Every structure is written in structure tokens, then in C-alpha cells.
Amino acid sequence: MDIAGRTAVIVTMHGKEPVIEAGLAGLGLRFLPPPVIDTDGFGTFSGEIPRAGSQRDALLAKAGAGLDAVAGADFALASEGAFGPHPAYGFVPGGRELVVLLDRSSGQHVIGEDLTLDTNFASCDVRFLSEAQDFAQRIGFPDHGLLLAPPGGGGPFLKDVRDGAALDSTIAALLAAHGGVHLRTDMRAHRNPTRRASIARAVADLALRLDQRCPDCGFPDWRGVLRAGRRCGWCGTETQDRADRLYRCRSCGLERVEPFDPGRMADPVHCPSCNP
Hints:
This protein is of the alpha+beta class. It contains 5 helices and 11 strands; from the N terminus they run βαβαββββαβαβαβββ. 24% of the residues lie in helices and 24% in strands. The strands form 3 sheets. Strands 2-1-3-4-5 form a 5-stranded mixed β-sheet, with helices on both faces. A 3-stranded antiparallel β-sheet has the order 6-8-7. It has a 3-stranded antiparallel β-sheet with strand order 9-10-11, with no helix packed on it. A hairpin with a 7-residue loop joins strand 3 and strand 4 (93-103). The model has no long low-confidence stretch (mean pLDDT 94).
């Protein structure tokens, strides 16, 4: 997968081009004008258009649409975000951003990722203007966008309220018509600087993966995965302590295992036999 000097198209309708281009500037890609693709068709954060399949499925579908739309592009780049309870911390909100580079000639792809607690993802139902104003302040409005709908959040959503005066008048109208308002953070990239920062970190991870090459075939994403199994220093039983790093090339199948912190034995406090 040679990259330098080849062409790429970024699939977005929400202003992600500057973030992605800046993060990959050192790779030598030539960026083509983005095609007009309604990426909301792959799913919206408001739920009005459900995402078909997984986050990864939507990501690859977006990139594939970019290659279909721009015949001269060697690669397509796309990102897809997902927000909800953080997988490691229960009910604390988190965000997971994926950014893909899809190669037309081989069909191969490389994905960068950012998993973060740094998100303003939130929603609430309110019955008073003051409650709505407090929520807007907490999530960083107007720099961060808001979605507004009747109570319950079933839509339709108002998505382009830009200032405090417009927010107050919109909320007043919804309160008068429905007795309440549903507010939700706008997670679209062009309306959410916190999400754009996550996209930038995912792009940096992608750039690193593209630079890490298989020693045999040169395919990128040669990144080791840490595995448990370090033996206890007292009895020799395998523990959950990290023991080695497994490298596997997705192109040629080469595998290598490198010890992690070689020579060290696991603390018996972590041993299932010595400290059951």
C-alpha cells in the first residue's frame, strides 16, 4: 500500500476536511475535492435515520461511497463516531471515533481509533426556560451545537440554532406547543469542537498505523497486541499480567511474538493460585 504521491478523497458533509488533511499532511497524499455525498444517509446522531449495521460497517460504507463517486481517487478517507456509556467506566459517557483509509486497488483498509471520556455527549428533557439555559451552558453552547425537539426526543429535531436569542425563542415556542423540550448535544463534527479533537486524535493514530510496516511485505498497521500470561514469581502459574506482544500482518499473514518486559515475573498477588 504505497501512499506518497497518490490521491485521496475525504467523505464528509460536516467539515472534517481540515482536521483529516492536517493529520495526514506528512504522508504525501494529494487530496481531491470532496464529492457531494449525503453522509446522513448512513445514520444520524439524532436517530432520525438509523445506522445500518455497526459503527465499522457505516465507516467502510462511507469510504466505499467516496471511491464510487470519485473515479480518480486512489484512496477514500471517512470517519464515524459513536457515543454512549464508556465501555470501561459504566454509565460515564464516552466517545469512540474511527477514521479509515480505504485502498481502491486492493480493497484493504487501515483504521485509526480514539476512545475517550472527553465528550460533551448529553441529553435531557426540561419544562422551564431556565433549565434549558443551564443545560446549554453546561455543554458549551453556542460553540457546541444543540438539537431541540418535543419532549421524549423522538424528533423532528431543530439543528441550526446558533445564538442565545434564537435558542430562547425556539425553546419558548416548544414549551408553548408541547409543555416541555428535549435537548441533546449536536455531535456533528462541524458543530462540536470537542468531537473534532477526538477525530484529530483518531487521525493521528491512523497516521502512526500507516507508518508501521510489516517487515516482510511492507503492509501498514504492523502493531502488536499485548497478551496476558506472565508467570507467577512464586509458583509459575500463568496470570493476567501482560507477557508478550503479538504482531500479525493482515496482508501476508506474518506473525511475530515479542516478550513484554522480559525477565520479570508476575507479582504473586495477581496469581490465581497463590492469591485465589
